[in-house]
Amino acid sequence: MKRWMRQHRFAVKAALGNLGKSPGSFLFNVVVVAIALALPFAGLTLLDNVRPMAQQLSVAPEISLFVTPATTREQALALAPALHAILKDQGPSQSNKAALVFVAREQALETLKAKIGLADVLGTLGENPLPDSYVMKLDGFGSVADAARVDTLAARVRALPGVDTVQVDSAWVRRLAALLGVLRLALLLLAVTLGMVVIAVVFNTIRLQVLTQRDEIAVSKLIGATDGFIHRPFYYTGALLGLCAGIVALGAVSLALRPLNVAIAELASLYASQFQLLPLGPVGMLALLAISATLGLAGALLSVQRHLARLN
Amino acid sequence: MIEFQAVSKQYSAHAVALRAVSFTIARGELVYLAGPSGAGKSTLLKMIAAIERPSSGAVLVNGQDIGKLGRAGVPFLRRNLGLIFQQQKLLNDRTILANTMLPLLVTGAASTEAEQRARAALDKVGLLDRAGALPLELSGGEQQRVAIARAIVNRPQIILADEPTANLDRASADKVLDALRAFHAVGVTCMISTHDDLMLEREADAGARVIHLDRGQLAALAPPLIPAAQAAP
User: Fold this and answer.
1) Which pTM does this prediction carry?
2) What total of structural domains would you count in chain B?
């Protein structure tokens, strides 16, 4: 174990020594790899910020129905049995989330005041302009294919007496969820592409190191060095290059968030929101650094296997 | 210790380095390998170190067939050999102490122990006072002695020296040979290739065993020279 530790310590020292021989070249490679990593890191940071917002929104379909202004409270409440019947007809509930909620017009006005901060403007209105309404929370309609069934239910609700307007509330949320899905896929493809760029840059860096150290490699082989002893410093160099580039990329993304957040704050204030882009948490950052180091290691592994095999 | 059994080495149809060479070298022998350039001396030494593999026949080192030695086994074979080349193959960006420590570090030895043993090896070849110098700051003869120190630092059973005195003046060549003879005197098997006829004549007169190679074939075998300490019953 001690011997194994010593061999690895020697490899780390050798890797650092090799980097120290040409620090300018190493820094240049770190910057190139960091640029490649910064794009997916920025995309991931953006998704990480948007995802909680999307999760707070209701993805399960909801049907909201608003009664006509002429409908009395008693007539509105009398719609409940018919709506329950429609809910029961939707099919077996998968998680007992199906529900019918009556929203009285007074309650709707209070919610509106609280949500958009227009209490002063709404207070100037003589009477409450909002109608009584129901929110029907459906269950078992998770996929896009279920949209037609939701439309059928909405049509049955619309046909009830006293019903003025029917809204299928989940449509835009589902569009947003689909959009986020597309963004996630695009980010994954971007990450894979740029990951290959990182591997290619490290591959070439290690290739040059192998070439400049071929005499040392040849001598080491002649005096009894194993393949592991010869390969290890290159592996550490690759991993170190990936790790340093990951740190630079995360730092660059964190710095870029500052001016971006100034612009976002202005935009968000128009919607009475305080939305800000936050950097990734420590676990996320550590995971990205581990991925960066792994990409560097992969590039080094491929390069060493290919170029040292040629020297052999 | 070292046995060649009808060993041939053919690089191509027109390039045959060794032809059915057979001989045995006992533990503790000092053997000179003689012959003109292109006789196959270097190829023969490379086969003992598994740098080259025989096209036919068998090379046995301590009973182990080098031709059948796997890739993973080669480094461990070489740790028992001290290799010295005409071009010393020193790392010019490292001090001679660091060069001498290298064979120990590749085995995973602690750096303090490696330094201690490297200093002792440099002392044996008379270069301890130059431990901090870079190879290019030394003369050719001194560089060759560093190569000897690096070869013996691992306390090998066999030293293989390929033209170690080529390109050296007589005085430097003598110092290099004295160093090698000193290791032979303590029981290390030594095999030294050379085409220095003057040196061979002198060593043969002193009773050294000389294997002559000519165009890849064994020309003559002289009687073995084993240190008195080992030859005694």
Assistant:
1) 0.72
2) 1
